[in-house]
Specification:
By secondary structure, the protein is α/β, with parallel strands linked by helices. The chain is about 35% helix and about 15% strand. The protein has two domains: about 160 residues, Alpha/beta knot (3-Layer(aba) Sandwich); about 80 residues, tRNA(m1g37)methyltransferase, domain 2 (Trp Operon Repressor, Chain A, Orthogonal Bundle), CATH 1.10.1270. The strands form three sheets. A five-stranded parallel beta sheet has the order 2-1-6-5-8, with helices on both faces. The chain starts with a strand and ends with a helix.
Length: about 260
């Protein structure tokens, strides 16, 4: 998969992209990340990428010319003013608090693409013509505001990459993550089997895989029930899951 990142702060990216799982995925050619400096596509002496907003107001607004030129040049798109958007099957994503809120489902959806563009906003905002005539999708990483889109871009790269074949050591790792199965993930334990008097559940030492799978599923249900009960409304639940949750609800009522 190829990621094209357009930013005013390219120096933000190398330290994370050259670490751990993402680094190994890049070295193996599973993902490619090209970071483009938007200032390289300006033509004035000062490399201006922002200007004051029409109508007044605080802050600066990112100019349309360098962003359009940067993306059209990198993707080889024709600049046709009469077209509502450039013809491209590549998602051109603006990272913005106004976008749809990113989640595991969207990460999996985007992992089906071979090429993705990420635009990192800065300052007060972007010229609306970028949103209307260039961007094909808008994504937010939550209901809060950051100083720029660089951190959200890294989050998308990381989350999307986990769904690609061979990126994770565990082939089913992404499917077992919290949210991937519609529930929070079950607890994990490792050696030693006892630490400061706290023992791991006996079932995990049993070697009985069916019992372990059942325990993990019930623990995921229990954790979701306690921490994120709203997720249970959309989760795909079996008859056994529903019976387990009914028992949990009965226990809660009896404790009151």
């Amino acid at each position: 998969m190829q990621f094209e990142v357009f930013t005013l702060l390219p120096e933000v990216f190398p330290s994370y992209l050259e670490t751990s799982i993402i680094k190994r995925a890049r070295e193996r050619g599973l993902i490619h990340v090209r970071v483009h400096n938007i200032r390289d596509y300006t033509h004035d002496k000062h490399h201006m990428t922002d200007d004051t907003p029409y109508g007044g107001g605080g802050g600066m607004v990112m100019k349309p010319e360098p962003i359009f030129e940067a993306i059209e040049t990198v993707l080889g798109l024709n600049a046709e003013p009469t077209q509502p958007k450039p013809e491209s099957n590549i998602p051109i994503i603006m990272l913005t608090p106004q976008g749809r809120v990113f989640n595991q489902s969207i990460a999996q959806e985007l992992s089906q693409h071979e090429h993705i563009v990420l635009i990192c906003g800065r300052y007060e905002g972007i010229d609306e013509r970028i949103r209307e005539h260039l961007v094909t999708d808008e994504i937010s990483i939550g209901d809060y505001v950051l100083t720029g889109g660089e951190l959200p871009a890294l989050i998308l790269i990381d989350a999307i990459s986990r769904f690609l074949p061979d990126v994770l050591g565990d082939p089913t790792g992404a499917q077992d993550d919290s949210h991937a199965m519609g529930l929070l993930e079950y607890p994990h334990y490792t050696r030693p089997p006892e630490f400061r008097g706290w023992k791991i559940p006996e079932v995990l030492l049993s070697g009985a895989h069916a019992k372990i799978d059942k325990w993990r599923r019930e623990q995921a249900l229990l954790r979701t029930f306690k921490k994120r009960p709203d997720m249970l409304e959309k989760a795909e639940l079996t008859k056994e899951d529903k019976k387990f949750l009914e028992r949990l609800k009965s226990e809660v009522k009896s404790e009151k």
